[in-house]
Design goal:
With about 250 residues, the chain is an alpha+beta fold. The chain is built from six helices and 14 strands. Strand 3 and strand 4 form a beta hairpin.
């Protein structure tokens, strides 16, 4: 197993661990009490697929969980632009710090911060990311011929750059510090088309500790005509701080 595959497997298990330890009934939509207890048990029983390169990622009795990441950053052929540029920025910042440290006096504590504006995120980007990755994993499911009674897609929103306001007429809005798919009516209607293939959608965000669980066949029941969501990007800075000491050579 290469390092990239090992990292992916660790991340998938981190997401499953977060989900089974943070799922609560008030974050479940279109579900009965019995269905809530049932999905809790499935999450606890889920085990990694012994063949990590094959569909699905996790298996439990008569069911599966498939994990995939989504982003509100622009996605090109090589993935999310934000992730790629963040890695490059951090690497260059560290190299610049080490270069500055080498030119400093010995036995002196040096610290330096590097910052850049966040790339523009958007609601449109995350909707495109969810649709693209959803369809990709549906195709993987169909090709796999995996037989099961129960099916769960576990989506991990890897950024924290979209906030949501849920608005009801003549009532104060509720503001959430992450993207809330339960308020995204158009996207939910699109996902509803897959009700015969996937039973549950789970969306998590590890940064904001956000989780939503949706019973897909009951999406029409959870869409409130009097409620609507507003999705806005967060504007801010990405920063990295480094500290170090150039130690003088000692005679022993």
């Amino acid at each position: 197993m290469n390092n990239n595959q090992a990292h992916q497997n660790n991340n998938e298990q981190t997401c499953l661990y977060f989900t089974k330890n943070n799922i609560q009934e008030n974050n479940c939509y279109g579900m009965s009490k019995q269905q809530f207890i049932e999905i809790q048990n499935w999450l606890k029983d889920a085990k990694p697929n012994e063949n990590s390169n094959k569909f699905p990622d996790f298996i439990f009795n008569d069911g599966f969980i498939e994990h995939f990441a989504v982003t509100s950053s622009f996605e090109g052929k090589k993935g999310a632009k934000q992730k790629k540029e963040s890695m490059q920025f951090k690497s260059k910042s560290e190299a610049n710090f080490i270069k500055n440290l080498d030119s400093c006096e010995e036995d002196t504590l040096v610290s330096k911060s590097f910052a850049r504006p966040f790339e523009q995120h958007s609601h449109s980007n995350i909707v495109k990311s969810i649709k693209r990755n959803w369809e990709k994993h549906i195709k993987n499911y169909e090709k796999s011929n995996f037989q099961s009674k129960h099916s769960i897609f576990l989506l991990e929103y890897t950024d924290n750059n979209i906030h949501t306001a849920i608005c009801v007429e003549n009532e104060p809005s509720k503001v959430f510090d992450s993207y809330r798919i339960s308020a995204d009516k158009e996207l939910l209607n699109w996902i509803y088309k897959f009700k015969d293939k996937i039973d549950y959608l789970i969306l998590i965000n590890l940064i904001s500790s956000s989780i939503e669980v949706i019973r897909i066949e009951n999406i029409p029941e959870i869409i409130d005509v009097n409620t609507y969501g507003i999705f806005e990007p967060v504007i801010g800075l990405e920063s990295h701080k480094f500290a170090g000491i150039k130690i003088a050579k000692r005679n022993i």
